[in-house]
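Example 3.
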Amino acid sequence: MAEAEHKHPNYVGVWVGLAVLTLLELGVAFLSWPKMTIILILLGLAVWKALLVALYYMHLRFEPNRLRILAVAPLPLAVIMIIAVITEYVW
Amino acid sequence: MAHAHAAMRPPAQAEPGAGVYTEKLGMWVFLGSEVMFFTALIGSYIILRFAHPVAWATPGQILNVPVTAVNTFLLICSSVTMVKAFAAIQEGDQRMLRFWLAATVIIGATFVSVQVFEYLQLAREGFLPSGYVPGSHLAESAETGAAYEGGAPLPHSVGLYGSTFYTMTGFHGFHVTMGVVCLTFVTVKAFRGGYTVQDHRGVEVIGLYWHFVDLVWIILFTIVYLI
Amino acid sequence: MATTAATFDQVSHANVDTRSFLRKYVFSTDHKTIGIQFLILSLFFLAVGGLLAMMMRWQLGFPGQAMPGGGVLPDTMAPGGILLPEFYNALVSMHGTFMVFFAIMPLLVGVFANFLIPLKIGAPDMAFPRLNMASFWIAVPAGLLMMAGFFVEGGAAGAGWTMYVPLSADPEYSGVSAGQTLWCMSIAVLGLSSILGSTNYITTIINLRAPGMGWFRMPLSIWALFITAILTVLAIPILSGAAIMLLFDQTLGTHFFLPAEGGQPLLWQHLFWFFGHPEVYILILPAMGMVSDVIANGSRKPIFGYHSMVFAIMAIGFLGWIVWGHHMFQSGMNPTLGMSFMISTLLIAVPSAIKTFNWLGTMWRGNIRFHVPMLHAIAFVAMFVIGGLSGVFMASTPVDIYIHDTYFIVAHIHYVLFGGSLFAIFAGIVFWYPKMFGRMMSESWGKVHFFLTFVFYNLTFFPMHQLGLGGHMRRIYDPTEYEFLQPLQGMNQFISISAFLLFATQIIFAANFILSWFRGKKVSENPWEDTGLEWTTPSPAPHGNWPTTPTVYQAPYEFSHPQEQTKDFVMQTDKLPTTSPAGGPADR
């Protein structure tokens, strides 16, 4: 079943974005800022890259809502498990 | 009730379901299970790091960030080649489909090879899943507590660091390898003209798997190598 | 395409079957055959699990005495027929492992998801028939790996079916090394089988429903299997990951769970139970679904509160993710975290209670037929209530501090898994046997089996509540070593004898099952006068299920419909004067 899109997203443009974000990550990782700040920025950049891949390369941006819900469904569970167990050590 | 014995009706359209074709739906469901599998591994890493933070070295001390950064870039490139292969067959361009698919296979195989090379390098220096190799270069430096290569001293023991590093990246590498194998089958089929403008589901479905593997690496590279 | 969804174009011509013997019965892609293959495999493991339990009960009832027939066991297990403590640990652990992973789970999911889903939604087969075949043939080596544990040095894994670390991770503590490794490998392999299967079930239910089979026209058995498959696909990978980490701790010297270099034993418990709690809902939801189908049929009435039943299944599936810590109240975990688990656990009783009242409402003023499946289904409701009520005690942390790891827990487990799941499985096997094999099981022997099982089952497991409250711990080898348990020993003996009689009774079921295969009464399409789609096709159902796609006009469970005067049921494919295909106002 071919996509109904007549024009697909700018794949090369996304690639450039991913490359730039990766370079940014490398830059930030070795700065001498407070550790927590670096971690938050790096996580934000990583999530941004992941979203680019998911939305444009995996076409989630253009898929029906039902599929998008299905795709994100595991994420809350992952977050719940990790955070709940971290409270064993950080509370 | 013998309704089926009545006049043979042509197969009717099934109830609307996910709104996408079945193979794509199946792959997304499977990817959901893969998210949970990596959650177990990556989640454990995060949890253990909160539980016992002293077992980790600073970024780049033991692991080779520059080489891995290039490898990361390579994997991202393979995602581009994959999606360009898909775009090609959407237009019916068989030649470019084959080109981009072959490129993806080669880059994917290269990524795995670099990873293997990295593992061998680390093992030689004395960093294994169980931690330091007794008597190795890293172990001895850690024992003295001296500054390692001009920076901070190495952690006293890295059992958790080794365990989590090798398990997460190892299973990721295993998934990439499986992806390369499947991609090879798809590429061979493409060379035999097995995909058309009307029907190229196999290309899209393997593409989804491949992008997922890239996505996991994007997360892994950041939290394993840079944090 | 590598795995094309089955279409009617491929598997129609249901009358012409040109497959070879190997393709038809061994490497079959037909969901019905795969379902029957799982049935044979899991009934075998059910027997194995039962045998292991018999040995355990011998030791508990008559500690230190030579077991009849124990002479066949090697000296590493039972010298002179007297079970060794190490062997007892393996028995306990393997009984739980085999029953949960290789008997109940494949019986409910491998058998009934496979057999029922395409038939009850109007599809010719699963979405990915070859993947389905792979799913079965991956489960077989998993079972062999698990059995192999008994034949290696050190014996089978012996740290409980929950394999808590450090006992399970370090051979120095348990004396078991290869057996433990085999357990981890077997679980990882079985996990793959489950994940592939569940992917198939979810995709099939979403995309392959026949025209007119809207979501709220699906029978509850299918709803339950759908939610179960979602739980499976998301929870099993956690277990796979944890088992692999445990495997690495045992073999590669990693430190995930072993404390020496900073590993966290509690991490194993959290990972295991994050999987383990959805797992127990995987073990009960399909049972509830099948029981709904059978009770509606036996009462000749629609299910009371169909929509609330669906939402209750969803609620159980959803809440099941946030209660896992109630298995860990005694572990030393963060008490505030523990409190949140107590609250969520108490909440999850509510949807189960809704379902119970709806089953009762279905039966109320029904025209009840006490056929064998109905007997098992009614027993399910009663036994599940008992198991559920003991669960409420355990949910309360202060109470659980006293009863955790006692036989009170064992009583709860067996009331929900045997009184619940297994009775539902018996109901399901008897009910769908004609669709599988074209013959009926013997009704009279079915009733004998039911009554004897019901009696001996309650005599075996109810007293365990008393034992637990008396302080009798789980997994201990010789209760008479503890002075405070000696007054309870008579109860232990009573339980053991009841258990032996319970096990012996199952021979009736086995004989009924096997003999009916060859000599049971042959039947036509709809021997139970049921409304589901599977009863519109011959018994046994042919390859491809129907010559062409059925169209669905009715809700499920249209029994005693006011507009149908000649019989007390309306098939889902029947047209009544006022119905429209896509669900019009005539749908209740």
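Chain C touches chain B through 66 residues (CB under 8 Å). Chain C has one domain: 28-536.
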